[in-house]
Amino acid sequence: MSNFVVGVTGGIGSGKTTVTDAFAARGIPVIDADVIAREMVAAGSDSLNDIARHFGPDILTAQGELDRAQLRQRIFADEAEKEWLNQLLHPRIRHAIETRLNDADAAYCILSAPLLLENKLTYLTNRVLVVDVPESLQIKRTMARDNNSEAQVEAIIAAQMPRQQRLAQADDVLSNDGTVADVYDQVEILHQQYLQAAASKRQQ
């Protein structure tokens, strides 16, 4: 079990995956909350069965998978339905995250979570690393990646924690407005710091 956890977060299009891939390349386990959330509603899972019972069978595709577009429509149109879904999934996702953090076997590990701060998951971490880019770059990258309109991306950014508020809660900040090589250079410096911090914590 790792006794030192670094929480990695950032707004949409900030390039969190590039950063966590750089840590993974150094042998650091990455527990990704988004991956866990997707696994939680995989075809045939208990959570998906609960969702289908609540919302009706039209929430599933012909292949028995979650129709994400249909679900998104339903929960954005009704705050109570969104709250029901959060009450169902959040405790299960948290439990899965805690289990994987406990199972991680390395000097330290990464918890990657876009909503790390919003969902108050910082109690699971020793440090918070915010991946930061200017809003204009967030919009440009997300439009290119997801084929969304500028207005759609701006609406997503507006729904997330404001950039300055996120930065105010950071222990460390990685600026991802340059090249991938720049990211790897910054990760190497942070990696050495985290190894030292984890070693110090073990000696306490």
Automatic annotation (TrEMBL):
Signal peptide: none
Amino-acid positions noted as binding ATP in the UniProt annotation, renumbered to this chain: G13, S14, G15, K16, T17, T18
Keywords per UniProt: ATP-binding, Coenzyme A biosynthesis, Cytoplasm, Kinase, Nucleotide-binding, Transferase
Pfam families documented for this protein: CoaE (PF01121)
CDD domains documented for this protein: DPCK (cd02022)
InterPro entries the UniProt entry points to: Depp_CoAkinase, P-loop_NTPase
EC identifiers of the protein: 2.7.1.24
Catalytic activity: 3'-dephospho-CoA + ATP = ADP + CoA + H(+)
Database matches in Gene3D superfamilies: P-loop containing nucleotide triphosphate hydrolases (3.40.50.300)
Pathway where this protein functions: Cofactor biosynthesis; coenzyme A biosynthesis; CoA from (R)-pantothenate: step 5/5
Keyword match GTP-binding: no
Compartment annotation: Cytoplasm
Top EC group: transferase
CC terms in the record's Gene Ontology section: cytoplasm
GO terms, molecular function: ATP binding; dephospho-CoA kinase activity
GO biological process, one term: coenzyme A biosynthetic process
Function in brief: Catalyzes the phosphorylation of the 3'-hydroxyl group of dephosphocoenzyme A to form coenzyme A.
Protein family according to the UniProt entry: Belongs to the CoaE family.
Name this protein carries in UniProt: Dephospho-CoA kinase
Protein species of origin: Aliidiomarina soli
Gene: coaE
